[in-house]
Model the fold of this input.
Amino acid sequence: MAIDETEGFRRAEVARINSEAAEREALETRYGAVWDTHQLQEDFTVEGFAAPYVVVRRKADGVKGSLEFQHHPRFYFNFQVT
Done:
C-alpha cells in the first residue's frame, strides 16, 4: 500500500472547508464560478477525487485542472488550471 504524503494536509483542509461550509452565493463571492454535482458533470470530466480536491478536464477545451469541494451542501469551486 502506497503512503499518501498529502493525507494529513487534505484531512485538515476537509475539516476547514466543511467547518466553513457556505451556500452558493457566498462561495461565488469568494471563488467566482461554483458548480453543483449536475453542473460539474455537464462541464467537466472527473479524472480523480482526493478530498477535498477533484481533478477534472474541462469539456469545452480539454484543459486539465482541479476544484475544491465541500460536502454539504455539495458544491465544487476554485477551479485551478494544472
Summary: The first strand starts at residue 34 and ends at 35. Residues 7-19 form the longest helix (13 residues). The beta strands are 34-35, 44-50, 53-58, 64-70, 75-81. The chain has three helices and five strands.
